[in-house]
Amino acid sequence: QQVDMITLSEETIATFQGAYDRNISFDKRHEKLLVNGNPNQLQQVVYILIDNALKYSNDEIKIVIDERNNEAIFQVTDYGQGIPEKEQERIFDRFYRMDKARSRDTGGTGLGLAIANTITDAHNGRLFVTSNVGEGSTFTLTLPLD
Ligand code: ATP
After folding, report:
1. Which residues form the Histidine kinase domain (predicted)?
2. For the segment 107-139, what is each residue's pLDDT rounded down to a tens digit?
3. Is the CB of 117 under 6 A from ligand 1?
């Protein structure tokens, strides 16, 4: 099924903006970016990445959607606590939560990124993070264009 990542992202962002008083900037560099896949599953990935960015930071978060090398690129940047390099692989494992997150009162199961990763794989995409402790994190999702 054809899915427009721009519309899907706008809808998901609107859901968060309706629920939380947080600043989410959205830089869409195209009117439409069509990929192939399951819209509910892809929305879940976008939801998980935005939800985490909001949970693990207090400031504005930035979302960018672009296209490069026949791929749609969806990026979420936050200016929160960041993720140490040695944890950056493990956060995609099931039930894995970093120490700080574990002691947070906002609970979570540690499944979000594992689910996002499984869905991304099933769509022949890639999901990865770049992060610096104390500065923030950028999660990037790439999907082959339709
Ligand atoms: P849930 O399953 O409810 O989403 P969770 O947020 O703990 O719980 P994941 O989404 O899988 O689970 O994230 C795993 C861990 O990765 C988190 O506990 C947190 O330590 C770390 N993490 C994820 N996103 C970020 C982020 N944007 N900034 C800092 N740490 C993050």
Report:
1. 1-146
2. 678 899 999 999 999 999 999 999 999 999 999
3. no
Q: Please identify which residue in the block is written with the tokens 């493990």.
A: 90
What amino acid is encoded at 126 in this protein? R
Q: In 10 A of CB 103, how many CB atoms?
A: 8
**How large is the ipTM?**
0.96
Is residue 127 lining ligand 1, measured as CB closer than 6 Å? Answer: no
